[in-house]
Known about the structure:
Spore Coat Polysaccharide Biosynthesis Protein SpsA, Chain A; 9 strands; 14 helices; 2 domains
Amino acid sequence: MVSSQPKVSILMPVYNGAVYLSEAIQSILDQTFTDFEFLIIDDGSSDDSYSVAASFSDVRIRLIRNNKNLGLVASLNTGLELARGEYIARMDADDISLPDRLSRQVDFMDAHPDVSICGSWLLAFSGNMLSEWHSPLSHNKIHARLLFQSALFHPTVLIRMSLIISHQLRYRNDFPYAEDYELWSRSQPYGRYANIGEILLRYRIHDKSIGSNQYDAKQKSADRIRLRWLQSMGLSPTDDEIHLHRELSLGMAPDPVSMKFLERAHAWLLKIRTANAVTKVFPEPELSEELSERWFVICNKSVSCGHSIMNLYFSSPLSAHFTGTKRAIFAFIVKCLLRWSGRYCHVGTNATYNA
């Protein structure tokens, strides 16, 4: 019989997800950690999702059915209201939790009472494609990453219920497809983050995934979250700067690359660092390291500029904070040297930057 006060409440909304639902449910029931309740919220599905979930007879399952489709955020908030556990674990209806996921996360949270939200790395898969997705581990690094994007993979998180109750936290409906990023950002003053540097979940990518179908809407919501962070640092970015910040967040560079774009990107990253030196919204040196990583990524995508981009990268004060491997730097240098400088890059200046 399931406890009236389980250690973990697993929260999994589902809407027309019957095709992958059985595998997702079974991955939870097969967990080595067993003290949990499993809240499955069918959000008015028109397929067989409800009957698939109802076919499992495990007493730890609490199956809830919305009378109509209310949306993901409403279903998540319903789950938060109904949950009885010390921890809330998120799960999506098309993913697969590895057997030790809950055990590893509960042990970590019990050992680190200062941590309020704990995620993990994941393995994204689609057909024959496999890709490990890593994220920063420490609170300060996760905090710095939030200026650009979510650093906690939503279906991997374990949340301390006391955080939810003490600060009356709920998902917001006005940030569609980025409600998790918004919640992590809003909850930052109240607790600490962590990620476990292990793959604890298999993340399925398919043609009905939010990332595949709602990319533009998700990025518009993310832009508003990024803007909120930038404004907290005393910045008032223009629309062009918001667009540039999105490109840097996503590691995007125009094709063909222009030196003008790179100079704008560099100036913007330095502007952020200068603003933070005054407001101290983000921790240092973690913010400088995050800015350095963005600078390296965008330069590494611009190696068609050859010697020009190599000189530009190393003359920037941002390069001094790079925490990547020597192998990555060596590969960047080799790629630059192998390109004919100016062949593909629209070089407008040979400007360099000094600290």
